[in-house]
Amino acid sequence: MKLTIPDYIQAIDPYVPGKPLEELERESGITDSIKLASNENPLGPSPMALAAIQRCLSTLHRYPDGAAHHLTGKIARFNGVSAANVVVGNGSDDIIALLVRALVRPGSRVIVPRPSFLMYAITAAAAGAVVDAVPLDPSLAMDLDAMARCVTADTRLIFLCNPNNPTGTVVTRSDFDRFMDQLPDTVVVVVDEAYIEFARHSDCLKTGGPQDVIRPQVTLRTFSKAYGLAGLRVGYGIMPAALAEVLNRVRQPFNVSAVAQAAAAAALDDQAFVRRTIALVHRELEVLYSGLGRLGLNYFKTEANFFLIEVGMPAQTLFDDLLRQGVIVRSMKAYGFPTCIRINVGLEAENRRFLQALETVLTGTGRSS
Ligand SMILES: *Cc1c(COP(=O)(O)O)cnc(C)c1O
Fold first, then answer.
1. All structural domains of the chain with their residue ranges
2. Which end of the chain has fewer CB atoms < 10 Å from its terminal CB, N or C?
3. Terminal C-alpha separation, the chain
4. Which fold has domain 47-269?
5. Whole-angstrom Cα distance, residue 80 to residue 177?
């Protein structure tokens, strides 16, 4: 076989997702492992979403509503915008891909923070864009001034992640407005708010309202984190209607399944579940912080449901050691932090188990196997 692959595709490092529990258990024989690697909701899916899924199973012989009318309307009302400002997708990853497909051609430039969510750079590179990765500032926050200085006539997209994955830092509204004022309106700014529900910082930027659909700006939200539906794949973008119309031209006609539409609509109604999730995360963050303090480890305080821990050794080594204890975390080597791991907040018992496993591993008693 002689495949002709464009060199910009050949050059892509594949995205490495968090290790699935089933895979670990298959490989190691461990049966009660826990996963704190993918920022998922420890409470599971919203019960209202589960009930909605049950109710729609008997109509699965039908195609979904390609316009996702019911879900789109709910999302619009929830955010105080018009349905014409909302595009739903197969996860927010799908909206990222649609934006790149609609706006980028080979040779276009796309600005991303580094480190941040890797899908921005991967998706842009797959379209032949030149990716300008702008390092975070020393406080691990996004350097908006440096990102603005990077803009050229070929820049089509800028991705911001607020709170940023993996550092948990946020952008303030005033810094964001100053940033937007510096940009030519040929650039579309994407604010990925996958974790915005968890942010407590009083000046934290939150976009997606009526004031945010009148300039070239997109808000990304997902049902994968606070809403507990990562396996179902639903996310959305809020944007000017003219841009939504372009994205609707380039998306698959049925990009969100009927089950996903029904579950997401029910999950949006279940704000009590979201509040329970947020309360758990905030309560357990304190437990994790103090446990790590007792172990003498440095960590980075977060505005999200995950955070970085400096482990003072190669992250991959600690990852392997914790794996043998049945605890899956994420090595941050691929994100430029070779001695950091990232964990998300789990259930009370999971967090306690993580701290115990970490102590065992760090004091050497866990290295026997
Ligand atoms: C998890 C995550 C998402 C969500 O992606 P989906 O495709 O909606 O599951 C988006 N952005 C960031 C930064 C994330 O960490």
1. 19-44+272-362, 47-269
2. N
3. 43
4. Aspartate Aminotransferase; domain 2 (3.40.640)
5. 20
CB 219 within 8 A of CB 239: yes
Name the percent of the chain in helix, strand, coil, to the closest 5.
40, 15, 40
Cα separation, 339 vs 350, in Å, equals: 23
Q: Does the pLDDT value for residue 202 go beyond 80?
A: yes
Q: Which three-class secondary structure string do you get for 37-74? A: CCCCCCCCCCHHHHHHHHHHHHHCCCCCCCCCHHHHHH
Pick the closest to residue 347 from 309, 311, 297, 305 (CA basis): 305
Q: How far is the CA of 3 from the centre of ligand 1 (A)?
A: 32
Contact 336, 115 (CB under 8 A): yes
Taking Cα atoms as reference points, which of 120, 139, 137 lies closest to residue 129?
120
Q: For 49-89, write each residue's pLDDT tens digit.
A: 999 999 999 999 999 999 999 999 999 999 999 999 999 99
Task: Give me the phi and psi of 188, to 5 degrees please.
Answer: -100, 125
User: Phi and psi of 11, rounded to 5°?
Assistant: -80, -5
> Using a 6 Å CB cutoff, which residues line ligand 1?
39, 91-93, 117, 161, 165, 192, 194, 222, 224-225, 230, 235
Phi and psi angles of residue 94, each rounded to the nearest 5 degrees, phi first: -65, -40
DSSP 8-state class, residue 351: H
| Spatial distance between the Cα atoms of 201 and 168, rounded to a whole number of angstroms | 11
Pocket test for ligand 1, best of 224, 232, 257, 330 (most atoms within 8 A of CB): 224
- Separation CA 157–CA 216 (nearest Å): 10
With a cut of 80, say whether residue 14 has pLDDT above it. yes
What CATH number belongs to 19-44+272-362? 3.90.1150.10
Q: Give 139-160 pLDDT, tens digit per residue.
A: 999 999 999 999 999 999 999 9
CA 36, chain centre distance (Å): 14
Which stretch of DSSP H or E encloses residue 113? strand 109-114
Report helix, strand or coil for 156: strand
